[in-house]
Amino acid sequence: MEHGTVRTARVVVILAALFTALCPAPLPAAEPIKLGIAGAHSGDLASYGLPTVKAVEMVVKETSSKGGVLGRPVEMFVEDDVCKPEVATNTATKLVSQKVHAVIGHICSGATKAALGIYKDARLVVISPSATNPELTQSGQYPNFYRTIASDDAQARLEVDFAIATLKLKKIAVLHDKGDYGKGLAEYAKKFIEQSQRASVVLFEGVTPGAVDYSAVVQKIRRAGADGVIYGGYHPEAASIVSQMRKKGMKTVFISDDGVKVDTFIKVAQKYAEGVYATGPKDTTKNPLAISAIEGHRKAYGADPGAFFLNGITAAQAILNAFQKAGSTNYDTLGRALQTEFVETPLGRIRFDRRGDAIGVGFSLYQVRNGAYVEVSR
Q1: How far from chain centre, in Å, is Cα 266?
Q2: Domain hosting residue 305, numbered range
Q3: pTM for this predicted structure
Q4: Sorting pLDDT into bands at 50, 70 and 90, what band is 275?
Q5: What pLDDT score was predicted for residue 161?
């Protein structure tokens, strides 16, 4: 005769086995698509990088509300490179170790160039909203690199054409900050001025970023008799140079780039920013998607977006669209999708050419008027 307790235990085991067979364990959650976001998120140039973090956050949140991409959630892995090449290599190595599927960034051209080889070896697609150095796409060294902004040769051409054809400048001082971005742009500007045969380069010189006093180069501008300056670099140095020029009573025209076409430049240079020209991404104020993105930023963060925000939105939309169209995170199929599949963005309907440059984007010229950048018609 079987003992009652033993019989009860056996029934429990049988029922448990039956329940397991009828109710299998839940399927594991879908592996997330991992996006690395790299750029300057602290330091003097954080105003260039943080807007892209917010841009990607907004796109990821919207995408997640619609079920993600390929039925998978999207996760962000944010890393700060302070816009310094020596830090960017560590940032890239960390993102690779985190097994991200693509990277949005870096922000500065020098940092981008330093990191690209690491991503290339890891077979990772990289889309920058702001790295404009022409060699990044034109050299053919980085088939994994794309950008949602036009390159510096187009930017330098616009600056030089405006300086000579519109402002009628004859003697131009070309300055730069010795970095990949600033020096590269300045070299193109110098080349285009010399090719024009309608103006001359009276000074070509690099300045040291972060210096307290730029009076020496300001004095050289005065001695050269320059009626205009074209500067390749970022806002901290530009603000110092312009301020020192104006304090010395110099009315020399100052023209710069998208590294200076930021509200932070105006805040730092204050009244001395008035009249400064700078190139920047084309005005998109009439694009419904741009209007929606900017309003979304105001609602989410209580402020207007900063530099390269719309380029960051576009980069995020482009890579997520490519994942969806490619049907996977495979490096090769992702590249083909970026080059063949159009996507509607705040910058317009774009795709990328074989070099990685965005088809459908470009630059406009702006001037500081009454404390704000205003687009200038040529």
Answers
A1: 20
A2: 33-149+285-362
A3: 0.82
A4: very high
A5: 96
State the angle between helix axes of 235-247 and 215-224 in degrees (0 to 180), rounded to the nearest 10: 60
Question: 378: pLDDT confidence band, cut at 50, 70 and 90?
Answer: low
The order of strands in the sheet holding 348-352 is 343-345, 348-352, 358-359
Neighbouring residues of 45: CB distance < 8 A, sequence distance ≥ 6: 82, 83, 107, 108, 234, 236
Answer yes or no: is 376 within a domain: no
Residue 17's pLDDT band, with cuts at 50, 70 and 90, is very low
Residues 157 and 122 in one domain: no
19 inside domain: no
Give residue 360's pLDDT: 84
135/162 same-domain check: no
The answer to whether 310 and 347 have CB atoms below 8 angstroms apart is yes
Domain count, the chain: 2
Considering the domain architecture, whether residues 145 and 38 belong to the same structural domain is answered as: yes
Does position 205 have pLDDT exceeding 60, yes or no?
yes
pLDDT in the model for residue 29? 61
Which helix (H) or strand (E) segment holds residue 74: the answer is strand 74-80
Sheet containing 145-147, strands listed edge to edge, beginning at the edge strand earlier in sequence: 74-80, 33-39, 102-104, 125-128, 145-147
User: Would residue 272 count as lying in a domain?
Assistant: no
Cα torsion at 47, 48, 49, 53 (round to 10°)?
Answer: 80
Whether residues 142 and 158 fall in one domain:
no
Read off the amino acid at residue 26: P
Domain at 162, CATH number: 3.40.50.2300
The answer to whether residue 329 sits within a structural domain is yes
**332: CB partners within 8 A, 6+ apart:** none
Using an 8 Å Cβ cutoff, are 355 and 138 in contact? yes
Q: Are residues 45 and 140 in the same domain?
A: yes
Pick from 90, 122, 98: nearest CA to 106 = 90
Q: Are residues 133 and 189 in the same domain?
A: no
Q: Is the pLDDT of residue 329 over 80?
A: yes
Mean per-residue pLDDT of the chain = 92
